[in-house]
Write a structure and sequence with these properties.
Membrane topology (chain B): Multi-pass membrane protein
Family (chain B): Belongs to the inorganic phosphate transporter (PiT) (TC 2.A.20) family.
Order of helices and strands of chain B: HHHHHHHHHHHEHHEHH
Number of strands of chain A: 0
Oligomer: heterodimer
Largest interface: A-B, 48 and 61 residues
Structural class of chain B: mainly alpha
Low-confidence stretches of chain A: 43-53
Number of domains of chain A: 2
Number of strands of chain B: 2
Number of helices of chain A: 3
Keywords (chain A): Membrane, Transmembrane, Transmembrane helix
Distance between the termini of chain B: 125 Å
GO biological process, one term (chain B): phosphate ion transmembrane transport
Radius of gyration of chain B: 34 Å
Structural class of chain A: mainly alpha
Protein name (chain A): Peptidase
Order of helices and strands of chain A: HHH
Mean pLDDT of chain A: 77
Low-confidence stretches of chain B: 249-253
Radius of gyration of chain A: 20 Å
């Protein structure tokens, strides 16, 4: 009775690598988007990660607050554009990483 | 009884199992994006169904594990599993599944399936029917290791996400943006679910076909029509199961937050996809639960509630042997009473399913909550305080923030000083202009002395 321990290690390393790459790229993308003054809103700024279903007026308020924060942005327009381009690049790379992962595991693509 | 009839019966039962599996697991993938409002319920459920369908076509490794690995079919050792025993095993799995579902116990449809099949094979043939090495390395060890793996990875991922998006200056950190990421990660979970769970049914059907000699034991790849019907069954189940999520909305479904949910879902999808590729038949529910607990622990100030966590773990441990006993019982009846036993099994089984279904209609709300509870409940195994003290600012960043504030104050002071100086200069210039005007007026009179004095 043999147990293929290497296989477990492979799963762990593959899953870890995939997750860390995807999560890091997306988080950096979000961070750059915020730096560029484009804060994704939908939730009040104080409770930025609470799960709540908000009314329309609340979302409006949050958007206003985010716009105000964006106005105070110390970056120049060029720096903002650069940050935004970086954010989109991160999201793009993240998508590519996911597709590459799927490509790797589908036998159909490997004959 | 006619062998063809039994095969058709087994296939129908397997597809029913596949359907309930999809029905049961829609919530795992789609509950969070619906709860956070990232996707409309109908869109989310449809997407999950389509991705399950696609996922079922992506890989056949898990199917081969079941049809070729754990249970020895005819051929080599002379031991052969019969369609009757597979029927009994499936019945055990379905009954146990629906029972735990009704009682709100954490369970896993995959382990119920293995338990039922193994129990039936042991009762019908004996321990020689089971390849214990394969069982250990492809089912039991993955069952223990996969949730731990997913949990550990989710823990690290959550730490990374929060560290990267953390802001110390109190400005918006953009974490609501993870809701949009969740659309994609939960889609990946749905896809991964198709690659692992739909395979299990394919494996069972293929095992049946091999057992009756309709398919060679050397080629245990599922045939195309098997892949197709299994994919359709799980997709249909996923779609129909969507109403339950919609019904649970607004009942405090989950405490998972977007950034955390994003990390947990990525870990779940990655773990399942990697495992499917290597043929590990694992429980998607358990992996998802492991991720949710791991990501909860990745947040600051969180503590494990051992009572809840223990209850979940106990449910997991019980599933395999309990379904095994039900499957074994059904196999014993079928084995000892022949055709009559099989009919008894079928009647008792369908009766039980019908009873559970009718019971569930009677107490609809409780049933809904119990059904969605599996993954959501694991979120309650971690205690996260509502009010978390702000993280102490690291010295490096504090210095930078201070420098920024200082620079701001300095700039302000400078601007003030400048404005003052300007006002002074203006006043001076005005005075001078006035004086000049005076000089011009007195142009013909005495010269130079006044102007010189001013200078």
């Amino acid at each position: 009775m043999t147990v293929d321990w290497i296989a477990f290690l492979t799963v762990f390393i593959a899953a870890l690598t995939g997750t860390v790459v995807v999560v890091t790229l997306y988080a950096v993308g979000v961070r750059l988007l915020v730096t560029a003054g484009r804060v994704p809103v939908a939730l009040p700024a104080e409770f930025t990660d609470a799960i709540t279903v908000l009314s329309k007026s609340e979302i409006k308020q949050a958007a206003k607050r985010a716009a105000k924060a964006a106005k105070k942005n110390p970056l120049t327009q060029g720096q903002k554009n650069l940050a935004r381009a970086g954010a989109y690049a991160c999201f793009g790379l993240c998508a590519v990483a996911v597709l590459a992962g799927i490509y790797l595991i589908v036998p159909f693509f490997h004959g | 009884m006619d062998a063809t009839f039994i095969v058709i019966l087994v296939i129908a039962l397997a597809l029913f199992f596949d359907f309930t599996n999809g029905f049961h697991d829609t919530a795992n993938a789609m509950a969070t994006p619906i709860a956070t409002g990232a996707m409309k319920p109908k869109v989310a459920v449809t997407l999950a169904a389509i991705l399950n369908l696609v996922g079922a076509f992506l890989s056949t490794e898990v199917s081969k594990t079941i049809s070729h690995g754990i249970i020895r079919e005819g051929g080599d050792g002379g031991v052969s599993i019969t369609p009757e025993l597979i029927f009994a095993g499936l019945l055990g799995a379905i009954i146990w599944n629906m029972l735990t579902w009704l009682l709100g116990l954490p369970s896993s449809s995959s382990h119920a399936l293995f338990g039922g099949l193994i129990g039936a094979a042991i009762v019908g043939i004996g321990f020689t029917a089971i390849d214990s090495g394969q069982l250990l390395s492809k089912v039991i060890l993955p069952a223990v290791l996969a949730p731990l793996t997913a949990g550990l990875i989710a823990f690290l991922a959550t730490r990374i996400v929060y560290a990267i998006t953390r802001r110390y200056d109190g400005k918006p950190d953009g974490r609501p943006g993870f809701r949009y990421g969740q659309i994609f990660t939960s889609s990946l979970v749905a896809l991964a679910h198709g690659t692992n769970d739909a395979q299990k049914t394919m494996g069972v059907i293929t095992l049946t076909l091999v057992a009756v000699g309709a398919q060679s034991a050397d080629h245990t790849e599922p045939q195309f029509w098997v892949i197709l019907v299994c994919a359709l069954a799980i997709a249909l189940g996923t779609y129909v199961g969507g109403w339950r999520i919609i019904a649970t909305l607004g009942t405090g479904l989950t405490e998972v937050k977007p950034a955390q949910g994003f990390a947990a879902e990525t870990s779940t999808a990655a773990t399942i996809l990697a495992s499917s590729h290597l043929g590990f038949a694992l429980s998607t529910t358990q992996v998802a639960s492991g991720s949710v607990i791991g990501s909860g622990l990745g947040r600051r100030g969180s503590k494990v509630k051992w009572g809840t966590a223990g209850r979940i773990a106990l449910g997991w441990l019980m599933t395999l042997p309990a379904a095994g006993i039900v499957g074994g019982l059904a196999a014993w009846v079928a084995h000892n009473f022949g055709t009559v036993g099989l009919i008894i099994d079928a009647i008792v089984g369908f009766g039980a399913v019908l009873f559970i279904y009718l019971w569930s209609r009677r107490s609809k709300t409780d049933f809904v909550e119990a059904a969605v509870a599996d993954v959501a409940e694991s979120a309650f195994a971690v205690d996260i305080p509502e009010e978390i003290e702000p993280k102490p600012i690291p010295a490096r960043i504090e210095a930078r923030l201070e420098a920024q504030a200082e620079a701001k104050a300095e700039a302000k002071a400078e601007a003030k000083a400048e404005a003052k100086a300007e006002a002074k200069a203006e006043a001076k210039a005005e005075a001078r202009a006035e004086a000049q005007a005076q000089v011009a007026a007195d142009a013909d009179a005495q010269t130079d002395s006044t102007e010189g004095d001013k200078r």
